[in-house]
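Fill-in record for Transcriptional repressor.
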Amino acid sequence: METDFENLLRKNHLKVTQPRLSVLQIIAERDAAISQPVLEKMMGDEVDRVTLYRILKTFEEKGILHKVMDLNGTANYAICSSSCTEHEHHDEHFHFNCTNCHQVYCMNNFHLPPIQLPSGFKAGSLTLAITGICNHCNEKVQSS
Ligand SMILES: [Zn+2]
Ligand SMILES: [Zn+2]
Ligand SMILES: [Zn+2]
């Protein structure tokens, strides 16, 4: 049977490969975005660094994943909303940076208001980050 991820790859005219499926699976299972080094560790021997880099780059170009910077300035990747298409991202939501665990979360339910730019300016992507303590870290503080 075809999985949703296989469909997603085919829809974007990408060959279905095991590493590509694994990357999607790992990212979809998390509630936070993931950085390449962490992803690399989780994939183990399944993929080398260069291949993983290419997979992430392709996914970003195809509108499957979007890049978010964490507080260390490391690129993290998160699944895109369904309105993203090739070369056109619509991830206009807040990103939450946890100052404790340094994870980045997509706040998909909070959309950014449309912004009026001065004439001559053309908006590409728009990001807005909130810094604070995430729910996982908050729970730990409260229970200890
Ligand atoms: Zn996107
Ligand atoms: Zn946290
Ligand atoms: Zn996001």
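KEY FINDING: The domain at 4-143 is CATH 1.10.10.10 (Arc Repressor Mutant, subunit A).
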